[in-house]
Specification:
Distance between the termini: 26 Å
Structural class: mainly alpha
Number of helices: 18
Radius of gyration: 22 Å
Oligomer: single chain
Number of strands: 0
Shape: globular
Length: 314
């Protein structure tokens, strides 16, 4: 990672105080890898910003981190986990989405258990899912993985819990191979709340359990777009070849998100029929669709060891 001039960080912090300047015009990359006195300077600057400016800044940092691999705002996001604004706390958790540092488990669990704001608890529940997965992959100690799962389970079953928190907890627990999970997913799928039912299908996809195949295939024809979306995603997660005939019509959906998840799912399922559908999309005049389809085809070629590898690999 290139060296950063500390004076650049100071200029960026001063720019934040100029409320006339839009966030996107500032050199936010200069705030990468802050530590020590620089982080202290950031905290002093932060205390002088109005709430709207703070939220816009965190959004800008997240977007830049997603677009650039050479920047890291971990220290800022970790510091903001204790911010007074629940929206900022939730954004900070989102900003740490790639982090697997076990030291984050404690603050995330604390937010899940104690934060008064449902949006922050829901973000924490979602974020803890990666530690459930790490536990299943045996890349996290058994004690820690069990503690994470228990915290999510308690959040899910807590009386009066906000439905969004319950949904995110169930989705994260979808990775778990615990004996209680199939029943929990099945009961959630039978719930009256449509959102919880959709999260149950999401969890089915994460479970790597073929027992859910018939439900997922049926929901691909749901009248609810949200349910079709989750069923398409789950089809890709479980690599259900039987889903391909139902996934292909979704490529013509006006809902871009639904169309894109169908492309993603077909890329994960593979097979001749899925490949032909993706090739047709890759030739589309719709540039966004064509790019997504080509990425799916490139991944299929790479995973299958196809001789017709994408041009960028040569």
């Amino acid at each position: 990672m290139p060296q950063r001039d500390q004076s650049d960080a100071i200029r960026a912090l001063n720019g934040l105080l100029d409320l006339v300047q839009p966030i996107h015009r500032l050199d936010l990359q200069a705030l990468s890898d802050l530590s020590g006195t620089e982080l202290e300077q950031f905290s002093r600057t932060w205390s002088q910003l109005p709430s709207a400016r703070r939220r816009a800044l965190v959004t800008g940092l997240i977007e830049l981190a997603e677009a650039r691999v050479d920047v890291c705002f971990r220290s800022i996001f970790q510091w903001l986990l204790a911010d007074e604004d629940s929206a900022v706390r939730a954004q900070a958790i989102d900003g740490l989405w790639e982090e697997e540092d076990v030291r984050l488990i404690a603050p995330l669990t604390r937010i899940l258990q104690e934060d008064p704001a449902a949006d922050a608890r829901a973000a924490a529940a979602q974020s803890l899912g990666r530690y459930v997965l790490l536990g299943e992959l045996e890349e996290l100690g058994r004690g820690l993985s069990q503690a994470v799962e228990e915290a999510l389970w308690l959040a899910y079953t807590r009386d009066g819990q906000d439905i969004l928190v319950r949904r995110r907890a169930l989705e994260s627990l979808g990775y778990s191979s615990a004996a209680r999970m199939p029943r929990a997913i099945a009961e959630a799928y039978e719930d009256d709340d449509e959102g919880l039912r959709a999260s149950a299908v999401f969890a089915m996809g994460r479970s790597a359990d073929s027992r859910w195949q018939d439900i997922i295939l049926a929901e691909l024809d749901s009248t609810e777009a949200a349910m079709r979306y989750e069923a398409a995603r789950a089809s890709g997660e479980l690599e259900l070849a039987e889903a391909v005939p139902a996934l292909i019509p979704l490529l013509d959906e006006p809902d871009v998100d639904l169309r894109d998840v169908a492309v993603w799912a077909l890329g994960h399922v593979g097979g001749p029929e899925a490949r032909r559908a993706l090739q047709a999309c890759a030739a589309s005049e719709d540039e966004v669709l064509a790019e997504a389809a080509q990425e799916a085809l490139d991944e299929l070629a790479f995973l299958s060891g196809d001789d017709e590898l994408p041009a960028f690999m040569f």
